[in-house]
Amino acid sequence: MKSSQRIALGVGALFPLLVLGFWPRYFADLSQPRPAIHWHAALAYLWVAVLVSQALLVGRGMLRWHRIIGWAALGLAAALVWTSLGVARAFVRAGPLDADRLQNLALPVGGLLVFAVAVAMAVVHRRNRDLHARWMAVTALGLAGAALHRVFLFYIPGFGTPMWAGHGCLLVLEATCAVMLACEAGQGRVRPPFAVALGMLTANHAVFAVAPTSTVWRTAAERLAALPAAFP
């Protein structure tokens, strides 16, 4: 199997993960009037579809179409960041900033940062196929966190609270980066993308752990809540 096919297969696994994770509180009742969340979900699925198609296009040597879709995907990435901020803002404003809400906010915000940094670096390294492909794969890790958190919360015994589900989710994402780095080390060359992702996820894990009592994080959450109504 070509490396591009392996990437497409791995990223494609996000489709069922997103459905499984968001089934109990989203897909099970799509009739609720939540346009901002519907747009956000649609954009996330479209991004996964873009990642899979881009990997397959490279594998088939269709580089022209790969570049065309890649530039168009920048608008998609910007829209996904925008709706992510809107959903996070709505979550903060939905109730009091107690310890649980502060902690539950840390995971999606950390994932959004991983996603945004990975997209930016993929553009910077667009002429380096190895780095570009790895940075694009890292964007999937940024999206996976929210769904994986819910998989732990709803389906895995012993992780039935948001706190423990968050720790489990972040440990899986960190372990994924560590495995990718070990594979690269075995091939004799370790590249930056998964090392940077591991560092960002570890930092996110630290913020997640201290979020309930951190005054800095509370201030950040309050500023997020104060974003203008231009956000969905």
Q: Helix and strand succession?
A: HHHHHHHHH
How many beta-strand elements?
0
Taking the sheet with the most strands, its summary is: none
The coarse overall form would be: globular
Q: Give me the secondary-structure category.
A: mainly alpha
In angstroms, what is the radius of gyration?
A: 18 Å
Structural topology:
Elements: H1 3-12, H2 14-22, H3 35-59, H4 63-93, H5 99-124, H6 129-155, H7 162-186, H8 192-210, H9 215-225
Helix pairs in contact: 1-3, 2-6, 3-4, 3-6, 4-5, 4-9, 5-6, 5-7, 5-8, 6-7, 6-8, 7-8
Give structural attributes:
232 residues, mainly alpha, 9 helices, globular
Describe the fold and architecture.
The longest helix has 31 residues, at 63-93. With 232 residues, the chain is mainly alpha-helical. The N and C termini lie far apart (42 Å). The chain has one domain (3-225). It is globular, with a radius of gyration of 18 Å. It has helices spanning 3-12, 14-22, 35-59, 63-93, 99-124, 129-155, 162-186, 192-210, 215-225. It contains nine helices and no strands.
